[in-house]
From TrEMBL:
Name listed for the protein in its UniProt record: RHS repeat-associated core domain-containing protein
NCBIfam families assigned: Rhs_assc_core
PANTHER family: PROTEIN RHSA-RELATED (PTHR32305:SF15), PTHR32305
InterPro entries: Rhs_assc_core, T6SS_VgrG/RHS
């Protein structure tokens, strides 16, 4: 046999070649180099020289579950400068994974700005509920004091300006922002002046950031 390769994704079984090249009969196989698989958690590549996982700006130590350098964006990424997804890489992912954001869309007709929140590409904003998923379209009387509803905004994320919601506990904030949209946590009405898309998103984010720090301090003191 001139060529043989028993497939293995992790490189335990190596390709074999004939001693005299392609098309030549050989008495036994000759092993080539093992396949290397250097990918680690999302955004990371294994660095053979250091034995660590490299993620563009810093190195991650899988033995401790922490980065060995501080977060280059400082406190904007949370209070823990060395943590990776709250120490839970089996359920969460790192760069641009489960991350809460507040976004501003310039306007549906370049004259009507809209604010909404996202968690892991799950995006929604507060609208008058009579629109049944359609975007804001008036008339003005219908949005002065009407029932409200969260509507999917994933179609406008690419045209919006988004910033990460940073606090003391990233995982807590992510879930808190999602909870703002459910049950008794959301406003009962939509009002253009005090319960609109901007005020609703800002109040949600402020509450989640403050409570994440309270929870972090309380867990530390217990």
């Amino acid at each position: 046999m001139a060529w043989q390769w028993l497939i293995s994704g992790f490189g335990e079984v190596r390709p074999t070649t004939g001693d005299r090249g392609y098309g030549q009969t050989v008495s036994g196989p000759r092993y080539a180099e093992a396949v290397k698989f250097d990918l680690r958690y999302p955004g990371q590549v294994f660095d053979e020289e250091t034995g660590l996982s490299y993620s563009l700006h810093r190195y991650y130590d899988a033995a401790t579950g922490r980065y060995i350098q501080a977060d280059p964006i400082g406190l904007e990424g949370g209070w823990n400068w060395f943590g990776y997804v709250g120490g839970n890489p089996l359920n969460f992912i790192g760069p641009k994974g489960l991350e809460a954001q507040i976004c501003t869309y310039p306007g549906f007709n370049n004259d009507w700005p809209h604010v909404f929140t996202c968690v892991n590409a799950n995006c929604a904003g507060w609208y008058p509920s009579g629109y049944s998923g359609a975007k804001l379209k008036g008339p003005w009387a219908a949005i002065m004091n009407s029932n409200g509803a969260y509507v999917d905004d994933s179609d406008i994320v690419d045209k919006s300006y988004c910033g990460k919601v940073a606090g003391c506990d990233e995982i807590y904030i992510d879930q808190c922002v999602l909870d703002c949209r459910s049950g008794g946590n959301k406003p009962s009405k939509y009002n253009l002046f005090n319960e609109n898309c901007m005020s609703t998103a800002q109040q949600c984010v402020q509450k989640c950031v403050v409570n994440s720090c309270k929870a972090k301090i309380w867990n530390f003191l217990r």
